[in-house]
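hiii so um. not sure if this is the right channel but i have a protein structure encoded as tokens and i wanna go backwards to a sequence. like what aa goes where. can anyone help
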């Protein structure tokens, strides 16, 4: 929880040398001169010449941003007689300066603090962010100039102009708050305008991400291969806001049948998305968009269901199911799946996972995190070898694009690798998927 108040902090500054010295690890938040924060600067505590006296200078160097793509900012403070240095910087959406723009990353010389009051440090969630010096960044006794480098990641989608506000303290290093020189600076950048090659989807390059079949459905994980898809590689870690999944990641968005798809992973050659909730059945178009424009649409087949099992490891063109025993033991093809402790046992109930198994009751929106583990509206069939496997209920959607089934391995199965095939909504999963069984 955030504690304290700006008023109490300022009162303490007037009487405590300890607190004055502690500002070598950074000032209170809201000292960048941003008008929306009250226009306060370091001059609220440090006294010397007038702010921006013309002798020294503070400058912010930043390039136009590509949404979601990290860049390094440079903050340079100069003064001919200063012997110690400090700064604070914040980034705001120019059209709404009370709203943060992107996130900062701390380093050995800086820290990131959250909100206008309190002592919370990053990650800051939706709170305002202020990046500022720590002791190692003050460069005591250095002369003439000090430059800090700060990594900043802009919002995942373009927000128009972004404005940086900064204040710097060119101090005399006398251990007091007198005789110091305060400077402010602003810098406004825009979303980069593109001009590079448009994204392109490879012919036949859209597949379900679990078994690489050519059909998809709602709640399918979809892999899209192509060129110039993204300027960066990243996952949605840090981009989920509350329960909302990102519909744009590093400036990349995808539409399937003109519906926005949550984006999990982007790279120059591949994008992984969650197929959005949609009742359409038949041929639909997929378009990848980034700062350079839209790809040519590619047609894929969309079905009411497109069942696929979670099979992260393969051998000799066989994909092996990863399963979990009821005691938490990872099951799979030993020697192929490095996590697997053993194979599944005949008669054992195990947890297996998949995507694309169809509608749930109640329907689960794809653009939000799954809550409540909704059950499938219709029960699929699952065959292991030549036998139909029993499982309780219909199966449940337990997280984004992931269904869980507690399946009992048929007791009649011999030791070995057996094909495992699901049928849901009239569609059948890939015949290249196997589960290892051993007594």
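sure thing!! here u go:
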């Amino acid at each position: 929880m955030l504690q304290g108040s700006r008023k109490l902090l300022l009162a303490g500054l007037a009487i405590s040398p300890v607190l004055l010295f502690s500002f070598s690890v950074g000032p209170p938040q809201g000292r960048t001169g941003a008008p929306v924060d009250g226009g306060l600067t370091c001059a609220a505590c440090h006294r010397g010449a007038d702010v921006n006296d013309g002798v020294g200078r503070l400058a912010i160097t930043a390039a136009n941003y590509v949404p979601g793509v990290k860049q390094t900012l440079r903050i340079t403070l100069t003064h001919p007689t200063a012997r110690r240095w400090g700064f604070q910087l914040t980034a705001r959406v120019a059209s709404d300066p009370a709203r943060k723009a992107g996130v900062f990353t701390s380093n050995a010389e800086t820290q990131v603090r959250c909100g206008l009051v309190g002592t919370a440090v990053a990650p800051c969630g939706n709170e305002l962010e202020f990046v500022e010096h720590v002791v190692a960044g003050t460069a005591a006794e250095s002369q003439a100039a000090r430059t800090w480098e700060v990594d900043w990641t802009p919002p995942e989608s373009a927000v128009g102009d972004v404005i940086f506000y900064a204040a710097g303290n060119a101090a005399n290093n006398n251990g007091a708050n007198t005789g110091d020189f305060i400077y402010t600076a602003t810098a406004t950048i825009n979303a980069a305008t593109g001009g590079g090659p448009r994204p392109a989807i490879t012919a036949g390059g859209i597949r379900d991400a679990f078994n690489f079949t050519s059909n998809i459905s709602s709640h399918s994980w979809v892999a899209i291969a192509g060129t110039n898809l993204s300027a960066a590689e990243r996952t949605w870690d840090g981009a989920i806001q509350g329960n909302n999944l990102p519909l744009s990641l590093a400036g990349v968005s995808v539409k399937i049948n003109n519906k926005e798809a949550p984006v999990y992973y982007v790279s120059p050659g591949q994008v992984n998305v969650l197929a959005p909730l949609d009742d359409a059945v038949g041929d639909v178009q997929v378009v990848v968009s980034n700062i350079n424009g839209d790809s040519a649409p590619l047609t894929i087949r969309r079905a009411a269901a497109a069942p696929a099992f979670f099979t992260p490891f393969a051998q000799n063109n066989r994909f092996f199911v990863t399963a979990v025993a009821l005691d938490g033991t990872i099951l799979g093809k030993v020697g192929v799946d490095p996590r697997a402790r053993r194979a599944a046992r005949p008669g054992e109930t195990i947890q297996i996972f998949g995507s694309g198994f169809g509608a749930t009751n109640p329907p689960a929106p794809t653009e939000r995190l799954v809550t409540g583990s909704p059950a499938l509206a219709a029960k699929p069939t699952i065959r292991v070898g030549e036998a139909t496997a029993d499982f309780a209920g219909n199966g449940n959607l337990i997280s984004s694009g992931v269904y869980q089934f507690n399946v009992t391995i048929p007791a009649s199965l011999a030791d070995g690798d057996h094909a495992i095939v699901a049928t849901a909504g009239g569609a059948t999963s890939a015949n290249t998927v196997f589960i290892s069984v051993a007594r």
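oh and The radius of gyration is 28 Å.
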